[in-house]
Amino acid sequence: MTPSSTNLPRVFGWTDIVRLGLVQACLGSIVVLMTSTLNRIMVVELALPALLPGALVALHYLVQVSRPRMGHGSDQGSRRTPWIMGGMATLAAGALCATLSTWQLADSAFYGVLMAGLGFVLIGLGVGAAGTSLLVMLAMRVKQERRAAAATIVWLMMIVGFAVTAGTAGKLLDPYTPMRLLMVTGAVCVMALIITALALFRLEGHIVANPTAPSHAVRFHTALSEVWQEGAARQFTIFIFISMLAYSAQDLILEPFAGTVFGFTPGESTSLSGVQHSGVLLGMIMVALVGSRFANSRLGSLRTWCVGGCLMSALALAGLAVAGHVGPPWPLKANVFLMGAANGAFSIAAIGQMMRLATEGRASREGVRMGLWGAAQAIAFGFGGLIGTAASDLAHWLIASSGVAYGSVFAAEALLFVASALLATRINMTEHRTSEEPAGVAQASFS
After folding, report:
1. pTM
2. End position of a domain, from candidates 192, 210, 228
3. pLDDT band with cut points at 50, 70 and 90 for residue 234
4. Mapping DSSP to helix (H, G, I), strand (E, B) and coil, where does residue 6 land?
């Protein structure tokens, strides 16, 4: 071991990956309270227009265009932990502010909306800061053959965070009062901060300086321009945007489609969402298991799963388009389960590719790359639901048959997934750091 190698970070084992998964679960636990529970309270208990929580959720996605700047800030320092911890603290502050806005909304709509807007801006900033640096830490510390499994573990733990928080908070909120909501939110935020602090404690180890950090400060616009000039980073940004747009565009129209065309009751259509998410979990686990077992073969290639997942998602959406014409004889639940599995496979493979590409190209730009892709995903999610519902309304205005109208929207989304698959095949995965740049942390650690 050379003297300089003592400053290099250690490679993460499975226990370290689980610790980061706990952080992601804490992040998800706060977010689900804001995007789900608070949404219902504003619409039902406060009798506010559904547009308000919808706009607030869109706002928190929009704010995440700041992800590249936050990633650049973490690139300039020697540690990612302060950005993750600071992001969680900002997220908690935003959640409390948004919760307090429900009190203000009862007295003054103007000041209540203003406070809610501030809260969701902080939520977006917190998610961006914590999520970007967490992914960079994973990308730079996890061996290539473990990346798919690592991404699956972290995202499954986030889903567990969603489920546990939603179920527990739901019981504690009955009977609902504003004070009870504030107490539950406060308790979740405090627990999330404590668990995050414990999970991150000494996780990065003792690093004197980031081996990839530049010897002088680099302006953000310079760093972003350099990353955008990298062919793989630019192509992957476009791929992320289009694929996540297709992924999110069906979210808000699937249940109305099931109710209108197949006659599903509200309970049955809600259970359909559960079928879809079960498929997503299966797809994620499948990629993790096969990717780890056959890491050095085409079968375990993240690119293969990414392209295949997009094509299978397109096929499943084409099936929904046919279902719009055929109606109830079509096996809708099986179709939706297939779509979920394909979505889960492509999304976890895309995250694995994201982790790989983040450490390729010019050194000390890992945070900027990850932030750029996170921003593309956030923008796509922010507009996906809006575009999907707007396309559905337009199709219903132009086409008399409701089933055909919905089917045309699903067909358009299938084409987006086909375009995503074509983009994924063209991404250059062999770019390396230029010879004049120092070796990156990931390269030094994994060689």
Report:
1. 0.83
2. 210
3. very high
4. helix
CATH of the domain at 100: 1.20.1250.20
Cα–Cα distance between 179 and 239 in angstroms, integer?
44
Which residue's entry shows tokens 């132009």?
A: 398
User: What dihedral angle (degrees, nearest 10) is formed by the CA atoms of 300, 157, 138, 422?
Assistant: 40
Mean pLDDT over residues 105-115, rounded?
88
> Which residue from 382, 375, 348, 350 is spatially nearest to 72, judged by alpha carbons?
375
The pLDDT value given to residue 8: 55
Residue 76 structural domain: 1-210
Burial of 298 (0-12, 13-18, 19+ CB in 10 A): exposed
Confidence of residue 1 (pLDDT cuts 50, 70, 90): very low
CA distance 244 to 377: 6
* Domain final residue pick, 210, 229, 253: 210
> Are 257 and 320 a contacting pair, CB within 8 Å?
yes
Total count of domains within the chain? 2
Grouping H, G, I as helix, E, B as strand and the rest as coil, residue 89 is helix
User: Are the beta carbons of 248 and 388 closer than 8 angstroms?
Assistant: yes
Distance of CA 22 to the CA centre of its chain: 16
Q: What is the dihedral angle through the alpha carbons of 327, 333, 339, 342, rounded to the nearest 10 degrees? A: -150
Question: Which among 31, 89, 271, 433 is positioned nearest to 262, based on CA atoms?
Answer: 271
Is pLDDT of 429 > 80? no
H/E stretch holding 112 reads helix 109-141
Give the residue among 95, 104, 115, 77 at the shortest CA–CA distance from 31: 95
Buried residues in 385-406 as b, exposed as e (16+ CB within 10 A): bebbbebbeebbeeeeebbbbb
* pLDDT above 70: percentage of residues in the chain: 89
Cis peptide before 175 (omega within 30 of 0): yes
pLDDT value for 295: 63
Rounded to an integer, the average pLDDT of 418-430 is 83
Cβ 205 vs Cβ 10: under 8 Å: yes
